[in-house]
Design goal:
By secondary structure, the chain is an alpha/beta fold. Helices cover 51% and strands 20% of the residues. It has seven helices and five strands; from the N terminus they run βααβααβαβααβ. Strands 3-2-1-4-5 form a five-stranded parallel beta sheet, sandwiched between helices. Helix 5 packs parallel to helix 7. The chain starts with 8 loop residues before the first strand and ends with a strand.
């Protein structure tokens, strides 16, 4: 990894509310624990803007500011609760990680955080979408594999 000459490696696990991303965090802690002892772990979650598009569309572009503020606050609380859950999972393995949340399109803010934080390895869970569903919904992991400025590990949960 490129940053290995600068000291500790940085590993970032990007999570959302899905079982797949929490599985990726658990997998990372179970399988890369030795690596994490000499590394810095960052757990990252994005506060998606997709709710805002729906909000503006449903209100013909004139959403009340109170409603927008309430939605932003709700997204922030969900992100904080998710990061607290991740801290709990990390502590089971004796790992303390830095937690970060950022507002924006998940695939874009993940890649931006990778670059800004000089991450060496990005770990993501795979939702296992295929075909048309993947084409229409997009794939955060696919985008990150092609655009993140570091190595990317996509963890698939065996069904």
């Amino acid at each position: 990894m490129e940053n290995s000459r600068r000291g500790k490696k940085k590993v970032m696990v990007a999570i959302d509310e899905s079982e797949f991303s929490l599985y990726a965090l658990e997998w990372t802690l179970q399988n890369l624990l030795e690596t994490l002892e000499d590394s810095k772990l960052v757990v990252f979650t994005a506060q998606s803007l997709s709710d805002f598009g729906f909000l503006y569309a449903s209100s013909y572009g004139a959403a009340p500011i109170e409603l927008v503020t309430s939605l932003q606050e709700n997204n922030r609380k969900i992100a904080e609760a998710l990061l607290e859950k991740a801290k709990g999972i990390c502590s089971k393995y004796g790992v303390s990680g830095e937690t970060i949340t950022q507002v924006g399109e998940p695939k874009e803010v993940i890649c931006e955080a990778v670059e800004k934080l000089n991450i060496d390895l990005l770990v993501l869970g795979s939702h296992g979408r295929r075909g048309l569903q993947r084409a229409f919904l997009g794939s955060v992991s696919d985008y990150c594999v092609h655009n993140a400025k570091c190595h990317v590990l996509v963890v698939k949960k065996n069904e």
